[in-house]
Amino acid sequence: MAQVFFANYPVSGSAGGSNPSVGPTGATAPGDATEVGFIDQSTGFLAPFSGPTAASGPNVVVTSSALPTGGATAANQVTQETTLTAIQANQTNGTQHTIVDSSALPTGAATAANQTTQETTLTAIQANQTNGTQVTTVSSSALPTGAATAANQTTQETTLTAIQANQTNSTQNTNIVGTVPLPTGASTSALQTMGNTSLSSILANQTNGTQVTTVSGTVTTSTPANANGTFSGSITVTTTEGSTAAPANAVGVVFEAESTNAVNIRWGVSNSGTAILSTSSGVLMEPGRSIDFLPIGTGTFLHYIATAAGANVIDIQWILRV
């Protein structure tokens, strides 16, 4: 192993002057500059380290070095790399397995033999569940207090059958034993008898022609219409509008266009004698047509006009109250 040391070469000349072995950084080193060297084991001579070069800079060369106890060697690393490469291949080729040669089962753990027996039993249960023969058998079971028994059910079924028969043979009756108090205000047989008597009397009076309706207070009456009211006949109608006022007590009017008229006429009703028609507007009436009854009263005017020149006549009958 090379021994490295620092050598301080003495300055030439007498002591106490400037140190020519020290120079500024980057300048040419003095001849007596302090150097770093080592003892060459092969020769025993002092040798300097290689100086820096522009291309590489300073280098430290280690020829050999003792490994510490247990240190890894290159041979062991090669063996390790081989093993890791094999592990990597197994992790990616789908063949990796974890093999357990043996493992002690905990106390009470299932064994393969017991599992086989269990599978056989389960297979038999599955077959019974699908072949239609499965049966649940209850050997005995204590009934709770007051529970129904088969004997009581038989008696109950007999009674229910009788009730059903009575409900369908039209003989069912509801018998009330004793006295049932009527609610306040309920009708009694005596009151119903009185009601029936009154109703019979009312019915008789409605059909014997003697029933009378009595009206109290003041009753307003009206005079019946006089069918022989005022008649206005043979009124000539021209293309100039004419009108006739309803007389006093008038309740309506009947009028007609005579069948011999040359043209149609138009008519209308208003509350004054002011013209409201024209030869082209108003209710149209053909020759021979009539208005059987028009309910108009006092203050109303009946208007009429011919649609064209010619001989045209209307007849008016006013209906009055007496």
Largest sheet: 5 strands, antiparallel
DSSP summary: helix tally: 4
Q: What is the residue-averaged pLDDT?
A: 78
CATH architecture name of the domain at 225-321: Sandwich
Look at the helices and sheets and give the structural class.
Answer: alpha+beta
CATH fold topology of the domain at 225-321? Jelly Rolls
Please give the number of β-strands.
Answer: 12
Q: What is the radius of gyration computed over CA atoms, rounded to a whole number of angstroms?
A: 72 Å
**Overall geometric form:** elongated
Can you tell me about this structure?
By secondary structure, this protein is α+β, with helices and mostly antiparallel strands. Helix content is 24%, strand content 19%. Among the domains are: 1-53, no CATH class; 225-321, Jelly Rolls. The strands form three sheets. Strands 4, 5, 7, 10 and 12 form a five-stranded antiparallel sheet that branches. The protein has a four-stranded antiparallel sheet with strand order 6-11-8-9, with no helix packed on it. The radius of gyration is 72 Å and the shape is elongated.
